[in-house]
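Example 3.2
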Amino acid sequence: MKILVADDHPLFRDALELSVRQSWPDAEVGCIGSLLELPAVRQLPDGAPALSLRYDLIVLDWRMPGAEGSNPVSVLRQAGIEGPVAVVTGAEDPVTALEVLRCGAEAYLPKTTPRRVLAQALRLVAEGGSFVPKYVALDLTHMTDLSLDIDEAEEAEDPVAEGEGALSSPLTDREQQVLCMLATGATNKEIGRHLSLQEVTVKLHTRRILRKLGARNRTDAVRRAQQAGLLSRSLDEATS
């Protein structure tokens, strides 16, 4: 188990490290106070990472030195750092939560989250799940229906590269489950009920799937997934 903890406040960083080590005593845990301290990954001449460094869990503060003018998740990816991201932040509002999830993080956790809930959420993310506090998810439901529909409409107008099956990054286990359900024609509500997810979470997973597959819509995503062999395992696993 390999874990990265990134927070610029030493006291809170130490508390996060302690929580992580209590949950995974044998884990290899790295701690940084700035994204400028990210582990070096060998790069190509054009500056792009030649290799990726994968963690089983990344616990990340949302406002980090080294991410000025960008978001910290994008900085991680550009540096070749891969792995599920749980953002732990002092910004406790639905706008920040939506921004965090849209950038590809698997979890949004305010720093006021109780330690027990934090530990459970981090374990869920490490196992391929996602987490948003219920009270934040309720606020998100009033924001995302319109905003996600607008974004998807804008994306549908953009040309999509025909590199069939070329994933921009691997699907998580949860995204794979959602994809299998999409292939059956299930609605967001049906997927949420089957996978015990809130409908807004299903929408965000679907959005990430479309982005990773370079797809215009759900039908296009399923087609690309089939061509890439991502649906080769029986769909019965998703519906049983």
